[in-house]
User: What shape does this take?
Amino acid sequence: MKPYYYLLINIACISIPFIASFYPKHAFYKKWGSFFKASIPVALFFIIWDYWFTAIGVWGFNKSYLTGLFLGELPIEEILFFIAIPYACVFTYFALLHLVKNNPLQKAEKYITFILTVVSILIAVLFYNKLYTFTTAVLGAVFLSYLSYKKINLSYHYLTYLLIIPFFMASNGILTGSFLESPIVWYNNAETIGFRMATIPVEDSFYGLILIFMNIELFRFFNKKKQLNA
Assistant: This one.
């Protein structure tokens, strides 16, 4: 029997947030409509991006750790990734809004956004010939600039991101080869800057930030719209 590690990682990431969604005092399951309205368009965007990069060999998948079910170039586990990870992250954001009344990042969020935007622009300029690096840097700079222009307070976005970093390191570490004989997801080193956090390409941190922030923003949009129509 194959070790279906990628599927198990998805299940592990979503299991506790899913169970905690039924906590009566702050029931996230009541927000599922807003979540899925947000996650589906974001998932489609990332699936298209993922499909393109897989097709041209920027990254790929080790079939030894997969169920063998594919949608075109992408394993079904990769499709589920864009639901499981956003669910865990949006749930975390939702929980933090209720649990943390005085966000320690409140005063610093504008500076964090500015620094990340500038760093993203510099990386895009310096590594324009590295497709994964360049793409994530440009998208990160554009999206953060848009959020800044809209004057959206990102303090809880950043707090969510900081809180999930240990889980990101664990899950993404396994995906990229930590504790395994070979990685579940491999990367073409010609398209990255080559710097890794353990086995994780540093570009994944930008990729993850874009994925999480897009889901949170659309979740906020649909949730607010629902409240106005109630």
Q: What stands out?
A: The CA atoms of residues 179 and 197 lie 14 Å apart.
